[in-house]
Amino acid sequence: MNLYSDIYQLLKFNDCVIIPGFGGFIANYSSAKVDFNSQEFFPPSKSIAFNKSLNSNDGLLLNHISKSRNLSWEKAVEEVENFVESVNNSLKNNDVVEFPGLGCFVLNQNVLVFTPFDYNDLLEDSYGLSVFTYPMLKFERKPVFVQTKDKDKKQRKSLRPLVYTLTSAAVLAGLVTLSFHFGLFENQTKNTETAKVVSVENIIKPSITPETTEIAVLPTEEIQEDIIEEEIVESIIEEDFVEPDLTINTNTQSHSVHVIAGVFSSSENAHNLCEKYKSQGFESIILPHNNMYRVSLRSFADTKTAYAELPNLKEKADNQALWVLGE
Q1: Can you tell me the distance from the alpha carbon of 326 to that of 287, in angstroms, rounded to the nearest whole number?
Q2: Best exposed site among 41, 72, 90, 107 by fewest CB in 10 Å?
Q3: 7 to 15, 56, 99, 119, 172: CA distances (angstroms)
């Protein structure tokens, strides 16, 4: 009986199929791969291996033959034994035994050698995908030469002397202007033959003459206007700044125990919180201490009364962080 197709079908859903008395096929998942040398793409598949030591009967092949052919167990065992005997006889005759879709067997110096096929259809996820060849794309970059017209070159060459001439003229004009500004050229008589020597200090830092001092002095009316403007700005700043009222209420100065609602390093923040609680009806005051400002929600004569009123004050002020300060 031919069992090639039965073994192939079982390997689609099982990782190992044992042929009792011959050996076992092992199917392992093989991911897709690319052979850059042959430029071939291989889809994912099941790689097949063979182990001659796996020859014990696990019942998988016999159970499949018994159900698919409606045979008894004893008859299925007999069919498998006949198949194994037929394969061994072909191998002893130095024939190549091919298992379709799996690989080939050959007996080499009494050693059983199995050569699997490169590709099979055992993996259903890649069913229908075959090996294909794809040629590698090659790109050749050609150098690009940019040619300029001869007219542009001639125009650029003709502009260079003009640029140099204009630059030299601008430098000379600047030097002449500086010379007149610092008094290097003065009116001289026709008969004078001696040159006037000007010191470097006078060129770099001209001396202060009475004429320059007169120009630097501003009119008295402008000075008075500037002073008046500065006084107006200072008065505006002084009027806009309002120092927060940090005085303690005289009615609560005699009380040495306070329920504190917050401590601030900024007097403005303390003043804002104090005004907030005053608007809610509390006798809030500010207690300055070591450059810090404590905001008291209410003051008491003794700590016992303060702790007794603390839960009620927390609820009314909606502030669970209130605490008692006793001096």
Answers
A1: 13
A2: 72
A3: 11, 16, 9, 17, 104
Burial state string for 51-65 with b = 16 or more CB within 10 A and e = fewer than 16: eeebeeeeeebbebb
pTM above 0.70, yes or no: no
Provide the token pair at 184.
Answer: 């290097």
243 phi and psi angles, rounded to 5 deg: -75, 125
Dump pLDDT digits (tens) for 260-284: 999 899 999 999 999 999 999 998 9
- The domains located in the chain, with CATH, are 4-133 (no CATH), 257-326 (3.30.70.1070)
Q: Is 187 exposed, middle or buried (0-12, 13-18, 19+ CB in 10 A)?
A: exposed
Query: What is the residue-averaged pLDDT of the chain?
Result: 75
Q: Alpha carbon of 5 to those of 64, 80, 216: distances in Å? A: 12, 13, 115
Give the burial class of 306: count Cβ atoms within 10 A of its Cβ; 0-12 exposed, 13-18 middle, 19 or more buried: buried
Collapse the DSSP code of 26 into the 3-class scheme (helix H, G, I; strand E, B; otherwise coil) and give the result: strand
Q: Which residues contact 271 (CB under 8 A, 6 or more apart)?
A: 244, 245, 246, 286
- The two tokens of residue 59 are 């019942």
Residue 96 reports pLDDT greater than 70: yes
- Give the closest residue to 93 by CA, choosing from 102, 105, 83: 105
pLDDT in tens, 173-223: 777 776 666 665 554 444 444 444 444 444 444 444 444 444 444 444 444
Measure the CA–CA gap between 90 and 172, rounded to whole angstroms: 111
* Cα–Cα dist 90/80, whole Å: 16
Report the alpha-carbon angle 37-39-41, nearest 5: 120
How many percent of the chain have pLDDT more than 70? 64
Q: What value does the mean pLDDT take over residues 93-110?
A: 91
CA distance 101 to 135: 27
| Residue 89 Cα distances to 7, 37, 173, angstroms | 19, 40, 115
Residue pair 14/27 in contact (Cβ under 8 Å)? The answer is yes
Instruction: Give the amino acid at 313.
Output: L
